[in-house]
Amino acid sequence: MGDANLFTMLSSFRPGSSATPFENYCTSGLAYFLQRGHRMLTSLFATAAGAYGESLALVEVQSRLADTGIADLVLTFENGVRAIVQVQVDAADDDLLPSLEESAASWTTPPALVLLALPGAGTREGWQHVSWLDIAEGLEGDPEPLAVEFAQFIQRDILGYGPVPLEEAIATNRLYALGGAALRRRFGDRVRYENSASRPIGGRYRYLGTTFALDGGDMEYWAGLVNESVPLSEHYHLMLASKVSPLREGSDHPRATGDWKWAFWSGAGRVVRPIELYEYGGLLERLEG
Fold this sequence. Notes:
Blueprint: H1 6-10, H2 21-35, H3 39-49, E1 56-64, E2 70-77, E3 82-87, H4 97-106, E4 112-117, E5 128-131, H5 132-139, H6 145-158, H7 166-169, H8 174-187, E6 191-197, E7 207-214, E8 221-227, E9 236-242, E10 264-270, H9 277-284
Parallel strand pairs: 3-4, 4-5
Antiparallel strand pairs: 1-2, 2-3, 6-7, 7-8, 8-9, 9-10
């Protein structure tokens, strides 16, 4: 493979792709290490693809698959085995997977199908599963500083490990990652969730956090940051909201969400220190039932 330029890869994007900019960023970062022949990561995907011990001959990012859409990654190993890799960086649904399966079935030699997802993601027949935690562990002990930084990025910005300072909560993916980690930890496969935020105004938000549903129900819960005042200030409160169900330790409806007609709110106070996983967990304990 030719020399990989990290910054060129991070700028890659194809119109029509279902990937978010953040997902594309994570995918391109991973592809950079695969293109450079990272031994542990190559072995991880070779094993998933059934190409045990093989090196990679080609790594394609956002590769178009005929009329069925765009694959996040297509890997070709030295022995000719190919793999379509679908990348997920949040609790994404699997609506795109059938079209990738259809494309794979039309190939003369069907490729392996690999799903790179969060820990604890459900399995799907016909797909081999790799976790972002596997990727982070595969980078452990690497002497290259860039590999260490990418492992830290995975742990904090994708997996939600570690405290999140306010300035990073409103400028990066780390608050969303922390919220997802807290929900998975407390509810496991009972929960379905998605990121949600108001449109930023001058770099400030009325709210940003995670909307979620339990036990197959409606998206009627939310947890995250709410601005303290209107006009918007630099101060935020960590809060839990419920559309229809009462919450323990209820609080007043915040002014910044005055047009959000959800009945029940509970707050953990102004954010003055980095937000920790246990603080999210404490809020989630206020759900009734």
